[in-house]
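Q: Hi! Curious about what T9SS type A sorting domain-containing protein looks like structurally. Here's the sequence.
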Amino acid sequence: MRNLTPLYLLSFFTFSCFGQNPRAFLRYTFETAQYDTLQVSGTNPLGTFGYPHSTGYNTTGVSNMPQSLVGPTISGAQYSRKTRAAEDYAYTSFPMSTAVKLMMIEGGDTFSLCSGSMVSEKHVMTASHCLHDFGSDSVRFDSLLVCPAYDNGRMNPIFKCSGVVRALYPSNWLSDFTDITILELDKELGKLTGYLGLTSSAEEDSLTNRLYYKFSYPSIHVPVFDSVPYNGDTLYFSYGIVDSIGPNTLMILGGHGIPGESGSSLFRKNRYWQAYGVVSRSVNYTHSRLLNWQYEVIYAEILSSLHSPSSPEASLILFPNPTSGSFTVHNKGSGKMERVVLSTITGRVVKVWEPDSRSLYIDNTELPGGVYVVMVESGGMVFGERIVVR
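A: Let's find out. The predicted structure is below.
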């Protein structure tokens, strides 16, 4: 895998940030290279909007995250230094499981681009500048790959990866750094990994002086800021205090971003685990903030694609359940099961089948007693159920 990390926007220069005016979104379909325009209401509603997180079928519980900022911190900033995520968190633990590495594919090779986060069953939030040339609304790549919990140069064997079918982003994004894009995947990886909720608020006081978290893939060695020789192959964790806010930004004064982190979410835990924006520029670790008018369009599009009439019906039956001998996995929907994965409740894969049928008989006579997860892939959908072995 080679590195093609965008450098020109997550740079060391300061850009002016003005209040964002509501305007049309663009929806790009990779297969047809077609752009559709989505009009917006033209207003920026007051109040706070959001939807909750989900922990996913194949996660191993929720991690205990820091509740206050402790050292070592970046000099002059209320923000931690980056640490390897795997040192403190399991790959399959939530919310680490929601972090994704974004890559492009060309000539059979993959190139490292940016970071992102799962924000629905099949959607990822990242930065617009990861996909576009400077000053352009055109998508510059033919094919993208998203890999959750990618680490140490390896795909996560439980979550695997997914292609990207569509991208959704505000038009004329560079005019005021509306640097947020939503990617729709061809697989429902979020059902396995879980996902962060999204939230936006016009109440700026509720956003500052709060503790936020981040998982990202820094990919460039910038010794003036950080002595670590990042290469984009490893997932890092950091956290700290947002202490400045602009009309469309969240900032950590004195902080700095590293190329490759572009698109990684700044998120925190209130009642739910929710993302507030994505890193866009290095100076003061500046994040493009999700605004209410953007949220309205994004949320409507996520709901529409998740409940598309063309989506295959999914209804999984495991019987008998509980079981003490063997059991059958049956998809009541119209599609064949392309892949069936049996894993422990902690995420360890026990066995994988590729039945290409609607039913699969599984002999569990050698399985220790406990709770297991059966995950099925069918027609681009991912769904699962738990089964108890006695």
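A: A fun detail: The chain has two domains: 2-306, 316-389.
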